[in-house]
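Archive maintenance. Older records in this collection stored only the sequence; we are now back-filling the structure field for every entry so that each record is complete. The fields below show one back-filled record exactly as it appears after the update. Entries are processed alphabetically, and CHHC U11-48K-type domain-containing protein is next in the queue.

ARCHIVE ENTRY
Title: CHHC U11-48K-type domain-containing protein
Organism field: Ursus americanus
Length field: 109
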Amino acid sequence: MEPEALEICPYDPNHRMPASRLQYHLASCRKKNPKIAKKMANCKYNACHVVPIKRLKEHEANCVNRTAVDDEPFNLPKVISPSLEPNEKLSNTVNQILDPDVWNTGERG
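Back-filled structure field:
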Protein backbone atom coordinates (compact mmCIF):
# COMPACT_ATOMS: atom_id res chain seq x y z
CA MET A 1 0.00 0.00 0.00
CA GLU A 2 1.40 3.38 -1.02
CA PRO A 3 1.57 6.15 1.56
CA GLU A 4 -1.05 8.88 1.11
CA ALA A 5 0.15 12.18 -0.37
CA LEU A 6 0.77 14.88 2.22
CA GLU A 7 -1.16 18.14 2.21
CA ILE A 8 0.21 21.43 3.53
CA CYS A 9 -1.77 23.42 6.11
CA PRO A 10 -2.70 26.91 4.84
CA TYR A 11 -2.44 28.29 8.39
CA ASP A 12 1.05 26.92 9.06
CA PRO A 13 3.18 25.62 6.16
CA ASN A 14 5.21 23.53 8.61
CA HIS A 15 2.12 21.35 9.21
CA ARG A 16 1.84 18.43 6.77
CA MET A 17 -0.73 15.68 6.98
CA PRO A 18 -2.43 13.04 4.81
CA ALA A 19 -5.35 14.39 2.74
CA SER A 20 -7.72 12.16 4.74
CA ARG A 21 -6.88 14.13 7.91
CA LEU A 22 -6.78 17.63 6.37
CA GLN A 23 -10.35 18.65 7.21
CA TYR A 24 -9.91 17.75 10.89
CA HIS A 25 -6.56 19.51 11.01
CA LEU A 26 -7.95 22.67 9.41
CA ALA A 27 -10.69 22.93 12.02
CA SER A 28 -8.25 22.74 14.94
CA CYS A 29 -5.54 24.86 13.31
CA ARG A 30 -8.09 27.59 12.47
CA LYS A 31 -8.95 27.85 16.18
CA LYS A 32 -5.29 27.98 17.18
CA ASN A 33 -4.46 30.72 14.63
CA PRO A 34 -7.34 33.23 14.82
CA LYS A 35 -5.32 36.14 13.40
CA ILE A 36 -4.40 34.20 10.28
CA ALA A 37 -7.89 32.67 10.04
CA LYS A 38 -9.48 36.15 9.79
CA LYS A 39 -7.53 36.73 6.57
CA MET A 40 -8.47 33.37 5.04
CA ALA A 41 -11.64 32.04 3.38
CA ASN A 42 -12.99 28.65 2.34
CA CYS A 43 -13.65 27.80 -1.29
CA LYS A 44 -17.35 27.17 -1.95
CA TYR A 45 -16.48 24.11 -4.06
CA ASN A 46 -14.20 22.38 -1.52
CA ALA A 47 -14.07 23.27 2.18
CA CYS A 48 -10.49 21.99 2.39
CA HIS A 49 -9.39 24.73 0.01
CA VAL A 50 -8.47 27.61 2.33
CA VAL A 51 -7.01 30.65 0.59
CA PRO A 52 -6.38 34.31 1.43
CA ILE A 53 -9.60 36.33 1.10
CA LYS A 54 -7.95 38.50 -1.56
CA ARG A 55 -7.40 35.43 -3.77
CA LEU A 56 -10.76 33.70 -3.16
CA LYS A 57 -12.53 34.82 -6.37
CA GLU A 58 -9.51 33.88 -8.47
CA HIS A 59 -9.27 30.48 -6.78
CA GLU A 60 -12.99 29.71 -7.19
CA ALA A 61 -12.86 30.68 -10.88
CA ASN A 62 -10.10 28.11 -11.42
CA CYS A 63 -10.94 25.54 -8.72
CA VAL A 64 -10.44 21.92 -9.80
CA ASN A 65 -13.63 20.96 -7.92
CA ARG A 66 -15.77 23.41 -9.86
CA THR A 67 -18.14 21.77 -12.36
CA ALA A 68 -20.05 23.02 -15.39
CA VAL A 69 -23.29 22.69 -13.38
CA ASP A 70 -22.03 25.35 -10.98
CA ASP A 71 -21.86 27.85 -13.85
CA GLU A 72 -25.51 27.46 -14.84
CA PRO A 73 -27.88 30.13 -13.46
CA PHE A 74 -30.49 28.87 -11.04
CA ASN A 75 -33.80 30.04 -12.47
CA LEU A 76 -37.13 28.93 -11.09
CA PRO A 77 -40.23 29.31 -13.25
CA LYS A 78 -42.77 31.89 -12.13
CA VAL A 79 -45.90 30.20 -10.85
CA ILE A 80 -49.06 32.28 -10.64
CA SER A 81 -52.38 30.87 -9.62
CA PRO A 82 -54.84 31.22 -12.54
CA SER A 83 -57.61 32.29 -10.15
CA LEU A 84 -55.64 35.23 -8.70
CA GLU A 85 -54.53 38.48 -10.20
CA PRO A 86 -50.74 39.09 -9.75
CA ASN A 87 -51.26 41.66 -6.95
CA GLU A 88 -54.21 39.93 -5.26
CA LYS A 89 -53.53 38.60 -1.76
CA LEU A 90 -54.34 35.08 -0.67
CA SER A 91 -57.11 34.52 1.87
CA ASN A 92 -56.27 34.65 5.58
CA THR A 93 -56.69 30.91 6.02
CA VAL A 94 -53.94 30.23 3.48
CA ASN A 95 -51.61 32.81 5.06
CA GLN A 96 -51.98 31.43 8.59
CA ILE A 97 -49.05 29.49 9.92
CA LEU A 98 -50.12 26.47 11.88
CA ASP A 99 -48.79 26.16 15.41
CA PRO A 100 -46.22 23.32 15.34
CA ASP A 101 -46.98 22.54 19.00
CA VAL A 102 -50.61 21.63 18.28
CA TRP A 103 -50.93 17.98 17.36
CA ASN A 104 -53.97 15.78 16.75
CA THR A 105 -56.57 18.44 17.45
CA GLY A 106 -59.35 16.30 15.95
CA GLU A 107 -60.99 13.80 18.28
CA ARG A 108 -61.15 10.13 17.41
CA GLY A 109 -64.18 8.06 18.19
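Update note: The chain has a mean pLDDT of 81. Helices lie at 19-32, 34-37, 56-62, 68-71, 92-95.
Entry marked complete.
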